[in-house]
């Protein structure tokens, strides 16, 4: 029996013994360099490396972790993105916006009747307007400089348009001409608040009482 004054063994094993213990013996896939990095890692009280095993080394009986492989479509898109000229993405965005503007001007949404295509199925079948109802008409009024009429058809759309346009100009200007415009970043809190406001707005303009009836489209 040891005396009370005999020093107690440390709870932390030394690095060399921890690295050679069966608890974290690496599989045959582990290289000598990887095992050397394990031996040099600080160990926890349980005898395991504090920083974990290096990539490609597995615990005994468990396979080494393999990074997930990307599918063909993702690899193709990323390869085209890396190899494309810097003006392609801003030009593609501009073409999409020009197409939306052209469609709005060509279809004359303010003159369409309730059953004209394309029609909102929710409003057509239930009478309730969906969160996007009035957006095309609001865009049409904006393109014609009628801000009050645009806000009456979809106030949140009118509110968001200046921010979206500025974000595009700042991003495209920095990418193409290295402009130093401040970039707008949309944090999760900002996105969540906007979605919540959109939901409340969608409910309020379906209420059958004044002044909410003035927003029914």
Supply the key terms:
0% strand; mainly alpha; 9 helices
Description:
With 217 residues, the chain is mainly α. It contains 9 helices and no strands. Helix 6 runs antiparallel to helix 7 and helix 7 (147-153) crosses helix 8 (155-177). The chain is extended and about 70 Å long. The model is unreliable at 1-30 (pLDDT under 50).
| Individual helix count | 9
Oligomer: single chain
Q: Would you count the extended β strands for me?
A: 0
Mean pLDDT over the full residue set:
77
Radius of gyration: 31 Å
**Helical coverage, percent range:** 40-55%
Amino-to-carboxy terminus distance: 91 Å
List the helices and strands and how they pair.
Elements lengths: L14 H6 L11 H8 L32 H12 L4 H20 L13 H6 L8 H9 L3 H7 L1 H23 L10 H17 L13
Helix pairs in contact: 6-7, 7-8
Task: Offer a quick outline of the entry.
The chain is mainly alpha-helical. Helices cover 50% and strands 0% of the residues.
């Amino acid at each position: 029996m040891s005396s009370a004054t005999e020093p107690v063994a440390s709870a932390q094993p030394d690095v060399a013994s921890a690295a050679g213990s069966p608890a974290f013996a690496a599989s045959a896939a582990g290289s000598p360099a990887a095992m050397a990095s394990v031996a040099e890692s600080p160990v926890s009280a349980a005898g395991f490396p504090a920083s974990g095993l290096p990539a490609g080394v597995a615990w005994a009986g468990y396979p080494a972790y393999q990074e997930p492989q990307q599918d063909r479509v993702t690899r193709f898109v990323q390869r085209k993105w890396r190899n494309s000229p810097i003006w392609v993405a801003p030009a593609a965005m501009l073409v999409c916006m020009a197409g939306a503007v052209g469609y709005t001007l060509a279809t004359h949404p303010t003159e369409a009747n309730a059953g004209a295509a394309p029609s909102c199925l929710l409003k057509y079948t239930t009478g309730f307007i969906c969160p996007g109802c009035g957006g095309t008409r609001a865009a049409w009024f904006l393109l014609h400089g009628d801000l009050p009429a645009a806000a009456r058809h979809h106030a949140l759309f009118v509110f968001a348009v200046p921010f979206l346009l500025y974000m595009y100009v700042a991003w495209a200007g920095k990418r193409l001409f290295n402009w130093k415009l401040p970039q707008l970043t949309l944090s999760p809190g900002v996105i969540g608040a906007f979605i919540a406001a959109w939901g409340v707005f969608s409910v309020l303009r379906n209420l059958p009482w004044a002044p909410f009836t003035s927003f029914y489209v």
